[in-house]
Amino acid sequence: MSRRGYGQDCSIARALDVVGERWTLLIIRNAMIGDCRFDSFLNHLGMARNVLAQRLNTLVEAGIFERVPYAFRPLRHEYRLTARGRELAPVLTALMQWGDKHLPGDGPPPRVTVHATCDHPVEMVLVCSACGGPVPQDEVTTRPAAHTHCPAGSPAGSADAAVHTAPAAAAVGAATGS
Question: What are the UniProt keywords, alphabetically (predicted)?
Fold first, then answer.
């Protein structure tokens, strides 16, 4: 797997090593709505063939896609999301809803995320793992884990520092398609 080498002990930096390149989340988005063949990605996304091949190889290597043959003469594969890949659905839903709110297009959004059972819109909601209740964004912070090594000079790395907090952007929610 290619590494950018952010040089940080950070879950976000490690995730961006896999999904942070241009086009990658759009490839995953298309796969989530059933578009999972190489030529289809090319046609719908309009990206260069070599870039698509490299992104797909990275996603297969990271366990987000699995390559599955669908034709044998000539041999052709489709790229199916694994459980790990499907777990990116809340990330894409949150990004899509943020874009709809803060960067709207001229008309209605091209896709909406709905509950498959009742067809009503789905909202991304933060949920407390202990009590199960919804948590407003202004009541969410992050803090160093007990084993985290913070960069020198950061507030959390200081011996006399209290817990350093910042707004978090964690979301628990529904499946997506943008």
Answer: DNA-binding, Transcription, Transcription regulation
